[in-house]
Amino acid sequence: xxxxxxxxxxxxxxxxxxxxxxxxxxxxxxxxxxxxxYPPLVQFIASQNxxxxxxxxxEVMLARxxxxxxxxxxxxxxxKTLSDxxxxxxxxxxxxxxxxxxxxxxxxxxxxxxxQEVGIRINPDFTMHGTPGIPSKFGIDEExxxxxxxxxxxxxxxxxxxxxVQSQELDWxxxxxxxxxxxxxxxxxxxxxxxxxxxxxxxxxxGVPYQETDAPVNLDALGKHAAELVAAYRxxxxxxxxIESGRFLVCEAGTYITEVLDIKRSRGKTYLIVDGGLNGFxxxxxxxxxxxxxxxxxxxxxxxDAWRITSDATTPETEVVDIVGNLCTASDILAEQxxxxxxxxxxxxxxxxAGSYACTLSPQLFGSQKKPEEVLLPQDTISH
Length: 384
What we know:
The protein is an alpha/beta fold. The protein has two domains: 51-244, TIM Barrel; 252-377, Beta Barrel (Lyase, Ornithine Decarboxylase, Chain A, domain 1), CATH 2.40.37.10. It has helices spanning 10-23, 39-46, 57-65, 82-88, 99-112, 147-150, 172-193, 219-233, 282-290; strands at 5-9, 27-32, 51-54, 73-75, 93-96, 116-123, 140-141, 156-162, 199-201, 240-244, 254-266, 269-274, 309-311, 318-324, 333-341, 348-351, 373-377. The strands form two sheets. Strands 1, 11, 12, 13, 14, 15, 16 and 17 form an eight-stranded mixed sheet that branches. An eight-stranded parallel beta barrel has the order 2-3-4-5-6-8-9-10, surrounded by five helices. Strand 11 and strand 12 form a beta hairpin. It starts with a strand and ends in a 7-residue tail after the last strand. The mean pLDDT is 91.
């Protein structure tokens, strides 16, 4: 295998899919393509009866090309142009992010002489943390979702809602309270539109433990609470219930591999110069100079020291090193002052948590270096 490279473990992905299906048997699961749009990966996940959460026209078509049926593709990104909507019309479930998008979809429906079913993304008057609703670039403010507002679009039938307020949450109790708020919102929307919803998209939010001190989401407890909510609201809600997987399916199933090109010792510091530094895997480079406490920067930044870094060097001797890339910039740093086995040129270094928001977020054109390869391992193949 050439380096730099991203390696994705299908066995691990299947295990994560099963975890969600076991915890949430009453829900359908959607794969968030923005987490990792590598086509063979998308195709594999689709083969496991997982739908698609698409944030762009291209992601809709990527899902279609890799085996996802239109009724299981939910297109909810903001800023959809008339061209986006025209190209995806009939290829997905459209979720309007604004009144302007509703107007555009209404226009297309009139031109085709159909009543078009459409979902709406709502910016709710709640968050996972119980604070009041806040301004957002995403969705229509909850207080504006009233019957009279939707009456302006006679060619449309509102059939679903989509809510998402936070990613990367590890506290199952906060997620559970959020689910309950979404159910309450759905009941109110049904009352406004005067007919039952056919789907409710609860968004993502189920986080992945990055740092050693992180505890994973208690899926057993969350699933039990979700089942209780479903039972309580079923007399009022008959809709299909959806959960976006976010990074959960793929983050820990991906490994980034880079090779030591040179070793430089300069005035008391040792640098391992590797191929594919920040241009290969940007997130560790960003965390090297951002610091802690930037949750609003998701998914660019999650936490400092959010990767386990290992080397295949076999020597028992260790040393403290900085891992830097081969770009002509001093900011090309993947890790600072970490202890690894003493390296030699040709040794390989691996980074965990590289299955989501990794390859696609990296500035691969910077420096005109070679782009990372991506490899999808068959099931039951050991990836490290």
